[in-house]
Amino acid sequence: MLQGINRKNKQDKDRRETVKEGESQGEELSSIVGKKVKKKKQHFSSYLRVVPQLLEYKLIAFVLLQVVVFGLKKLGMLLIYSTGRVAVTSGDYHFLFRTWQGWLIMLITFLAFFFAMSVDINGTFLLSARLLRKEKVQMPSLIRETFASIPKFINKHGILLCLYVALGAPFLGVGFNLTLTKHYYIPSFVVDAIRTSPRYMCIYVAIMAFLVFFGVRNTLAFPYILVDGKTAHEATILSHRMIRKKWRPIASRLLIFTLQLVALLLLLSFLIALLGTLVTSITDLPRYFNRFIFIFAYGGGVLLLIFFTLSFPAMEALEITRIFMNFDAKEEIFFEKELPKRSFLPLRVWSCCLIASMLFLSFLGTLFFDELFPARTDTKIVAHRLGGYAAPENSLLGFDSALNQSAYGFETDIQRSKDGVYVINHDNTFARTCGVNRLVSDMTWEEIQRLRIADPTGKPSSQHPPSLEELLDYARGKGKLYLELKGPTADLKMADDVSRMVRERGMTDQCVITSLKYSLVAHVYHKYPEIETGYIYYFSFGDRAALDCDDMIMEEEAATESAINTVHNAGKKVLVWTVNSPESAYRFMDSDADAVITDQVSMCKDVEKGLEARSDTERVIDYLSRNPLFGVNISQPIKLGGILQAR
C-alpha cells in the first residue's frame, strides 16, 4: 500500500516536472521567436556589415580568375597557332573535333569553367558558412579550401550543376552564374527566329521551363556539397527533398530578402539621381567646374553602386546558406551584433584612397571631356536585307526605302539558282518571303521572276526577288553594298563570280563582300585585294584581328569594348549585327563601332538624333552605363538615375 502511494507520488512529481520543463521550453521558444522578430531589421543590417569581407573575397577571386584564365588563354593560343590558324571562330570551329589540339583546347575550356565555378560559387558558399558559424575568416585557408572543393564536382551530377551555372543561368537571367559567362544571352537574331516560329517557341518555352525546374530543384545543392560534405548526387536528391518539403518558407525568405536588396538598390539609385540633380542645378558656376563636380559626385555614387552590385550575388548565397543551415540543423541561425571584421586596410584608408582616385579621375574627365564623352556619334547605319522592316525584304523597293531614310549602307544576301543566276534572298527557300517552299538552287531564274515578295503586312507585293546584276546596276553610286555569300551554294565559284561582277561595273569602292564562311572571305581578301571584305561571326577565340579580312562583322554579344578596340588597333573596321532594339541601338550607336546593321533604320536614326542632342550630364551618364567596371552591368540603375534627373 505504502509502495503504491510512493509510486503514485513519484509519477505526479515526474508529471509536474515534465509540465514545468514543457512550460520552460515554451517560454524559451517564445523568447527565441520574440528575438527573431525583434532582430529581423538587425539581421538585414548585419548582412550589410559583412559586405567588406564579401568584397574582399570577390576582389581576390577576380584577380585569381584573371591570372589563371590569362595563362589558359595563352596555352590555348599556342595550340591554335600550332594548327596554322590565328583564331577559332563560328565559321571554322570544326577543326576542334578533328585534331588533337582541338580536343585539348576544349579540355582547357572545360577546366577554366571548373576553376571559375570554384572561385565564383564554391568560395562564396564556403565563406558564407564560416561567417554564419562565427568562425575567423582567413583568406589563404579559404582559397585552399575552395581549390580542394573542385574534385567534388568532377562527376556526372557535378558537371550538370557546372553546366547550369555556366550556361543555363545566364540564358535564364536568374540564379548564380560565372564571371566568364555571366553576360551570355540569346542572340537577337535567334530571338527573332523563335518569335516567328510556333515550333521554335514551344521548344524555347520547354527549355526555359526545364531550366527553371532544374534551378529551383537544386537551390540547396551547393550548400549540401560544400557545407555538409555530401556528394553531388546526394546533394541533388537532398536538395529536391528539402525544396519539396519546405518550399513555402524557403521561397518566402528568399523573396523577402531579395526584395530588401532590390529596394536598397533602388534607393541608392534614387539618391544618386537626386545628387546629380542638385549638382546640375548650380548654374552660376563655370562650365568646367560644374562638369568636375558632376563627374565627382555622380561617379562616386556609381562607384558605390558598383560595390553594392558586386556583393549582391554573394549576399544571396549567404542567405541561401543560412536557410540551409536552419533547416538542416533545425535551429534558427542569425547574425549577432558583433561580427568578426577583417579587411586589408582600415575603412578610413580605403575611403581616402577612393576619394583621391575619384578626384583625380574627375580632373581627367573634365580636362578631356569632349574626347571621353563625345557629343555626337560617328557610327553609321546599314539597312539589313536592303531595307529592313519598312518594305518587302531584299527588294529594290526596300533599297529605296532605306535610301530615303539616309541609310549609309545596305546589306543583302546572295544565293545561286538552278541555272547559275545569282539571286538576292536570305533563306535557302522562298517559303517565308514568297510562300513557295522550294530551294533557291532548285528553281530557274525564269521561275524566280514570277514570285512576289510579301510586304511587311504579309500580303504579296509587286516586287520579285532581284538578281545580283539588277541590284548592282540599280544601286550604283547610291551607297555602300554589303554582299553576303549565303547558303549551301556559297562556294569559291560564287566568290569569284561576284568579285568579277563588282569589278566589271567599277564598284570595288562601293561593295564589300562578306560571308559566315571564313574560307570564302580569305579567298577574296587575297585574290582580289582591291575589294573590301567582311567576316561575319557569332563568337571567336584567339587573335581575331589577325584574320584575313578588312571588316569584322560581330554579333551583338561578341561586340565588346575590348573586342572593338582590338580590331581597330589592327586597322580594321567593326560592324555590329543585328541591332533591332532601342537599348542595343543606344548602346552601339554610342560606341566606337563603325556601323550597325539593323532592320529598324528609322529607329536608329531617331537614336542618332537623340545622341547628338544630349546635355553634358546625359553624355556622362551614357558613358558610365556602357563602361561597367569588373563586368558588372549597372546600366539600368544609371538609366533610372538619368530619367529621374531629367524630370
TrEMBL record:
GO terms for molecular function: phosphoric diester hydrolase activity. Residues 379-608 form the GP-PDE domain. Gene3D superfamilies: Phosphatidylinositol (PI) phosphodiesterase. The keyword Manganese does not apply. PROSITE patterns: GP_PDE (PS51704). InterPro entries: GlyceroP-diester-Pdiesterase_M, GP_PDE_dom, PLC-like_Pdiesterase_TIM-brl. One of its GO terms (biological process) is lipid metabolic process. Residues 9-23 have a biased composition (Basic and acidic residues). It comes from the Bacteria. The keyword Ligase does not apply. The chain crosses the membrane at residues 59-82, 102-129, 158-178, 198-216, 254-280, 292-315, 347-369. Keywords: Membrane, Transmembrane, Transmembrane helix. Residues 1-25 are annotated as: Disordered. This is Glycerophosphodiester phosphodiesterase family protein.
